[in-house]
Amino acid sequence: MEIDQSPVQGKARPLSRARSLLEALPGKAKAEVIGFAKSVRKLGQDDPRRITHSLKVGLALTVVSFIYYLRPLYKSFGEAGIWAVLTVVVIFEFTVGGTLSKSFNRGLATLLAGALGLGAQYLASLSGEKGQPFVLGIFVFLLAAASTFTRFFPRIKARYDYGVLIFILTFSMVSVSGYRVEELVVLASQRLSTILVGAAICIVVSICICPVWAGENLHNSAASNMENLASYLEGFGGEYFQSGEGSNSDRSFLQGYKKVLNSKPTEDTMANLARWEPGHGRFGFRHPWKQYLKIGALSRQCAYQIEILNGYIKSDNQVPLEFRCKIQESCTQISAECGKALKSLASAIKTMTIPSSTNVHVENSKTAVKDLQISLKAVSLEHDQELLAILPGATVASILVEIVISVEKISESVHELSNLAHFKSVEPTVSPEKPQLLHRGAINPVLDGDSDHVVITIHETSTGLQENENPKAPKIGQRVEL
Amino acid sequence: MEIDQSPVQGKARPLSRARSLLEALPGKAKAEVIGFAKSVRKLGQDDPRRITHSLKVGLALTVVSFIYYLRPLYKSFGEAGIWAVLTVVVIFEFTVGGTLSKSFNRGLATLLAGALGLGAQYLASLSGEKGQPFVLGIFVFLLAAASTFTRFFPRIKARYDYGVLIFILTFSMVSVSGYRVEELVVLASQRLSTILVGAAICIVVSICICPVWAGENLHNSAASNMENLASYLEGFGGEYFQSGEGSNSDRSFLQGYKKVLNSKPTEDTMANLARWEPGHGRFGFRHPWKQYLKIGALSRQCAYQIEILNGYIKSDNQVPLEFRCKIQESCTQISAECGKALKSLASAIKTMTIPSSTNVHVENSKTAVKDLQISLKAVSLEHDQELLAILPGATVASILVEIVISVEKISESVHELSNLAHFKSVEPTVSPEKPQLLHRGAINPVLDGDSDHVVITIHETSTGLQENENPKAPKIGQRVEL
């Protein structure tokens, strides 16, 4: 606990000095500093773009501050140069779309409100020296109240909220400031030009140095949401039927889906910002961003189902072993195949290729549903089984069947996206998944001819499934990603 | 389609003039104007506080603009008076908590950054005329980058995001502006005092005229979320078992729960803002706002279950009539009693009284669960029932049982809240619900002695339930809200 004796001497070796300072700290403070350092490191590691973004903001501000130092620029902008600094600070957003949206909003709102403000001043000046403040006061009141009210419109709130704010701000400032109109025109043009300079610096830095595109974020989040759902479903069978005594000590894959439950606001924001972005990389200007919201809603639907399913993993497993053994194979198969379908959809989105291999997994999961139905039919014939006892297991089976329907809907919406966005039809050269490894003990039973007389009650869109008794056997004319 | 001939003459009767203008518009534009007017009206009707808020913003801005007109004030503030206008526009938020949070953030950040900026300027001036811009540039870069990075910390993002923004802004402006230090001190003090004036006006208007408290919003949203869930559950039985052919043409009560699914971000924001608010009305300064987040999470859990349940209302009802009749009474009873329990919890939150009548409904729903279990036990004895056919119905029953557990958890968390926030123990004089009317055909069957040998598998916290065969019969020593 000794206090550092040499605060000056260590100048040449800042690192060792910092270390000695750290050692001198009392235990609790030291732990806090280390904890803080760790959380900083984690934030940076989780998303290195955060570090780049911080450096970009620093750079843009440094560049704009040189406007003040380089004399020729200073003279042409005058005092208003400070508005360029202000613009950079408030406009620079994490994503390109955010920066563009704010630039556009700020520029247009300043222009509009400036013109209106000048008009208001002129009108007010007609009412004489004494009347002017009151007329202006009424104008400010009416415009501020009306504009504030428009911010409650959901569409305006989502896209033009900042613009309305700047509109009120500029109108009040222009109409209220005691300047004469001629002075105001000069001032307004100065302010506009500095805003343009500030916005231009922001846009250039934002786009040219490691750009973060809201559209790409939305695209990737759609894929990662599906991966989270898929990880759960692929692990579910092993987790539920082995009562968690398997070799899986790391169960973090069972938590990922929770992120999907509350994904709506982030996705809505990203979709709104993506509309402002020009075409970039693999995304055209008119990329169907709205379709991602549809995919997102369906993914959340599936996440809700998984949330209910998850309740049954946690609860004490009181379902009779006999019944669980009956449904184990087909349930594990359904869950694993749904997981694989979602994984292949996620990889199709990532690589922007047509999700051709998904259909196989969806069909496999449907076949497994039929196997499950056969198993359930067999159950009803035994008299020793009580419905009450097997109910939790039956519910799990029932929800898994619902999940198959959800996954099929997700698959359809991703196919729609692949049509709208003209995905390539090329398969990725290296399969991004390793089906053989991820396939947890889900060997489909070859049922003894039973499947010939199955009554199909679950959504059936394709025929010719009954013939294919082993769902893992590749079908003729269909590419399989195994 | 005639054009209004008299644009000046109508001055005396603006209403009739507006009408004639409206009539002159071509059909499509007219429809759009009417549509717009309707949506404005709806926005205002949905929440009249929106109108008050807009008027309050107008008022605050008008008041602050008089700083410019009243000469003595103008002289003492000088040019910096414009910052008061700017402060009002950006600080005035819908809720008192929002306004206070922004005021505090802006004030403290300006003070801190101003002091730091002066220090930076002094240090930079030591490095001579030529070195100064570069030293300042490095300062701005480092501080902006570091501060921007802190905005990624979730806790800072939630509470101090605006403060960090203003910190970067003020630091850049102070350190960059080419003034001498003596001038800057004057300027900074002017700016601070104008910010104080602006913030003071905002806070006074925000609190004194129809205040909107974030805490009260959070409190009410907890209650309304529960009411939405309750409306669904009370209506579910009739909707599911009567195949939607009942007299209920208005099914909007089946949609309310969807609002709960995505309630998390709003609740988080409100809870953060509520911490800034002083004690108001029925809420003390240290009101347990965090508990509302816990209640919110449990309500969402229940909403997820209802979302799954809702899927079974929509799907074709292929469950054999015989089975449906067996579970109809107890399922309707479970659902209705859960709904009543939630309604009474909601009303307890609204009136801030201890939710004493909830327990009766929770216990009733548990009794109904036992009745359901008896019915299900009876099912297994019949050989003509196929498990596969009755599976959808059995799943509905199973999810309803889960909902009972959810409702019990919600009830516990509301009881916790009533402890933490010292709710009154007085019952409301007028019961806010009308149980007899909302109780849709849920007459509990008095089972013939079967309940004596039921094996209880569902969470049971109280005993003495078996004796109470009619769950609607009030228990001794417990107040019933019927």
Automatic annotation (TrEMBL), chains A, B:
PANTHER family: ALUMINUM-ACTIVATED MALATE TRANSPORTER 10. It is a multi-pass membrane protein. Keywords: Ion channel, Ion transport, Membrane, Transmembrane, Transmembrane helix, Transport. The keyword Transmembrane helix applies. This is ALUMINUM-ACTIVATED MALATE TRANSPORTER 10. One of its GO terms (cellular component) is membrane. The chain crosses the membrane at residues 51-70, 82-101, 108-128, 134-153, 160-180, 192-214. It is found in: Membrane. It comes from Salix koriyanagi. GO terms for biological process: malate transport; monoatomic ion transmembrane transport. Its main location: membrane. Residues 462-482 are annotated as: Disordered. The keyword Zinc does not apply. Belongs to the aromatic acid exporter (TC 2.A.85) family.
